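Morning. Coffee machine broken again, so started the prediction first thing and wrote up yesterday's gels while waiting. Chain of 291 residues, entered below exactly as on the submission form.
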Amino acid sequence: MDNFLIDDVDVYCQDGYKLSATLFKPTSEVKAAILICPATGIIQQFYKSFACFLAEHGYAVLTFDNRGIGQSLTGKVSSSTASLQCWGEQDMPAVLEFLKTTYPDSTYHLIGHSAGGQLVGLMHNAGDLRSIFTFASSSGQLRNMKMPYALKAHFFMNLFIPMSNLLFGHTKSQLLGMGEPLPRGVAQQWRHWCNGQGYVKTAFGKSIHNHQYNTLSTPSLWVNATDDDIAIDVNVADMLTVFENMDAERLTLSPEACNLSEIGHMKFFSRKASHLWEHPLSWLENNSPLQ
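Came back before lunch.
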């Protein structure tokens, strides 16, 4: 019998937007509260097995769909006003506040996948995090990507996104196996930020005027894979330059050394790669104690 319960919950952002979320609750004493922040266009269901694993080890875990994605989409995706920026400024802080209210005597930790780690500096309450663990989080800078993947990336970002937005009012990323359909504003910012240096840094002083990137000093571990064409070492390093005071450690995994055929940008959270989950578990064990 599982030693945790699963509840569907609603999380309300400061601007009143309602997010769909799932809370994994240990039936025993909670070691710490974990927020899993998803990659661009990836629904919370993708992280269920990983969340169950953490809950089985005594951690309360909250997964969620960003606004405009999955069960947090209200109405048509072409009518959504969501952006990457509001995911970081509104959605992620709201789910952290939900955890703080639900577990007021705990410590709080963020596990971010790709955009889920990139956007943490936009959270006004990021200073409440005891630690950060990311996988495949990088600047995604197109000019650093290697051939032949660079051609695919440029096609998606600089041709497919603008054409899809023009024709349909949103990006049909699902047609290329890139997750859920993306609201126009999300895809536009994604394209702009990946064409620049430092990802979100391209918006500093423009659409972004308040952030925590230059002050956040939370202990963090940034994990990537050798067979990931996006979060390559140089792009992870590029992302970390934006976190000027981040206490960051790095870990690069190879599928061969991990007895896997691939890890890439997505497979870390696959059940087949569940032995890799000892890395975040160990990280949490070392960083979650109250004292």
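The mean pLDDT is 96. Going to sketch it on the whiteboard this afternoon.
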